[in-house]
Predict the structure.
Amino acid sequence: MSRVQDAKLEIQMLHDRVMVRVQQGAGERRSSAGIVIPATAQMAKRLIWGEVFGVGNHVRQVEVGDRVLLSADDQFEVEVQGQTYLVMRERDLHAVAAERAEHGTGLYL
């Protein structure tokens, strides 16, 4: 019996699922005086930005490469080749920052 070790597998998201990588240091922030506030000191729920790395075939509003605004609480984490990703439903995303946006808030990043 032979086993294939370290085989590279392609990941395909199913249905309305989105795989997002959260930017490093997304939880940390700086005050206006320059003081670093760690992610553990959050007083209220804070949304974070991430980048979409995979979408299921029923996802309609986001594409791979989009920056999305999400809540990291109550999401599923998965580790792939040493990187941590979040897997969630498309409806759990709060906003998309993309150049192709047709109807936005008028705010720019």
